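Look over this record before class:
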Amino acid sequence: VYRAGYRLNSAYSSTLAATTDKPLTAQQIAELKSANEELRATIARLEATQTELQQKNQTLEAAYRQLEQKLQHLQAVRDDDDRGEG
């Protein structure tokens, strides 16, 4: 496990390649390196998306708290008005 939440697929593990009887060909090594870079780029994009979503979530939570406060205020005003009429 490299990072929290990420577990490498054993098919891409260097230890798996090292346990085979035959050494890897240059093409296989190039393919593995290419796949590795692709995975790293995907992880970087996912992390950026995660950060963006966390920020949006914080914004939404703040907006929700503001709406709750406004609702409580309106309910308090309405309750005061109801008491004044009786």
Summary: The longest helix spans residues 26-85. The chain is about 75% helix and 0% strand. The mean pLDDT is 86.
